[in-house]
Amino acid sequence: MATPRTETARRAHIVGWGMAVPERVLSNGDLCAMVDTSDEWIRQRTGIVERHIAGEGETTLSLALRASQAALEVANLDPALLDLVVVATITPDYAFPATACLLQDALGAERAAAFDLSAGCSGFVYALSVAAGMIAAGDYKHCLVVGAETLSRITDWTDRNTCVLFGDGAGAVILEANGAQGGILSSVLGSDGSGKELLIQPAGGSAQPASAETVQARKHTVQMDGRQVFRFATRIMPDVSRRVLSKAGLTVEDVSLVIPHQANDRILQAAARNLGIDEGRVYSNLSRYGNTSSASIPIALCEAIEHGLVKRDAVLLLTGFGAGLTWAATLLRWSLPLPVPTPSRRMTFWRNLRYRWAQLRSHWRRFWRNVDARLFQILYDEEGRRKR
Ligand code: ACO
User: Fold this and answer.
1) Catalytically active residues, by annotation
2) How far away, in angstroms, is 271 Cα from ligand 1 center?
3) Which residue, 28, 105, 322, 377, is most buried by CB atoms nearer than 10 A?
């Protein structure tokens, strides 16, 4: 159920944030035992030192859930007040239903609409822009926007060109509608499907349904033309960044911190050079997480806040590129005083109770659906007519 429209002009403000990464760490040294590579090559060519890999039972949903619960805690918000849940991912738990629906159920976000968004590594910025637009239109008050991935599940662990790059993780933000100054200022999204082969998981869709052959040919894993993606990224990141700044009437000098998609340190350096911004204002945590696709920007945002790099009124530029090909940038002015007060124990207790209740509710609804089906069989004939 959507929040009723109001006449006040509203902006989307980030009021909660959270991240989650699996416990298991895979170092460059570990990878050397798996493929023909070296710690030196990976560090020099990518900047990556280690990455987190999902353990048994961990999925995109479980990471998204932890990140979302952390974000709700910071926002001190009851999940039942969420109007919308968007999960940006290219590694959903299932092709369908959407991971966002599973997340909505697990959180007990009873009145929220939910959908997944697939835009490769630009996914989180796309999702942020869509949710901010719905808030500005007056449709929603509280939106949960998540970027979550388990890329390790679609990685070819025999391909040194790709397996050294990726990691798993999730990041989430709560967007709130209010009339305060700042918040999301402008967004620019773009795409070019002619580059589909440059980054692709070829099989598993309607073009190449799963078969013994597709599995044997490793077509359910990421295939990438690294050099071409590299060239594309170094050009598109500065370009989309300039456009989003000009849309908001700001310049590079106004930007306090750039939070880019974490793909390769050399891409970040080249993009910073081309944009004319010093590297000190470009956040990088690539060495610890690798490329977590749509999760990389919200994870980096969480860390930047935690490390005190985000201050009130700071202008943040979030920018990414990815499979599609896609690219995206969002500019926001941070409006929340930091640090945020710790929520009262009563509210935290209430939220935890809500998560337990959500589990029970989910079991109950599944149970009741079965009972309902049995009752229907007893009371109605095959044409749906009431039996006499
Ligand atoms: N260890 C050792 N050598 C390697 C490795 C490795 N892990 N990987 C490649 N090499 C070799 C190559 O075989 C090649 O050898 P050759 O010259 O004998 O053929 C040599 O290193 C150079 O290869 P390049 O591809 O030119 O290496 P480059 O410097 O371009 O780095 C990389 C490769 C890291 C992949 C870079 O091109 C890159 O970062 N591209 C962008 C990737 C990206 O951002 N992808 C987004 C994915 S997001 C998503 O969709 C999930």
Assistant:
1) 121, 261, 291
2) 18
3) 322
